[in-house]
User: Fold this.
Amino acid sequence: SRRVSRLLLEAASLAERMTISGATACEGRFFLGGTLGILAHWELLRGRYVEAAKQGRRAVHVLAKLSACPEYADDAAYGLGLYGYETSRLPWELRWLSKFIIGGYANRAKSLVLIEQAARGARYMRSDAQASLAYIHAAYDRDPPRSLAFAEMLRAERPESPIALTLVLEALAVGGRHDDVLSASARGLERARPPGSMFQREAAAYRYHQGLALLGLRRLKEAVDAFSAAINAGGRPIWVTASRLKRGCAYDLLGE
Assistant:
């Protein structure tokens, strides 16, 4: 972990040097803001919350300056919007962190507008912004139509992205569109079939959502099979763990 921290600090130092020269100042701020964001997340994972807040504050200051660079303004909007949205979700007793990190209390609606600005106009962070909005509206705001709109936007621009299809499935599942989930997951599994396909990496996610739809349709034995297939597919641990939990629910409903 120390090596990772050292490498990130070295990267931040190199990017900061770029900001000194007028010719590379904007590009340097772009790299510096991104590196500090990764560093803040890394410190958060290590449980170093104060250090994470400090690096987040540094990143926001850099991104605010980056927003003055026309060619990077939409990319800066993504970072600023994401910091604003995440701090708006802090528990009330931690809202003081919002003032420390972004300089004031976060406004969730304005933060989402900034991320949408990036989703439509950013040069480098466009796909990230689209994916973030698809996830935010599915997992947190529970707005399936908006989630699906951004997931479909990402899939239209990145048709070879396996995760784009996963985001579409999440939006459909939150909206209770079980039949559409089954159709979309089947297409994903078909694309995952050829050896070496990138879609194999998300096969567990497709199987999980397939099981979720079958569970919603009360096709319980088929749901158990789908969740079992997701567990055996491997892939990202989040889908394997979720499939184990949902398979248990299906067994309970079956009385087994």
Observations:
- The chain has 13 helices and no strands.
- The two ends are 44 Å apart (CA to CA).
- The mean pLDDT is 94.
- The first helix runs from residue 2 to 18.
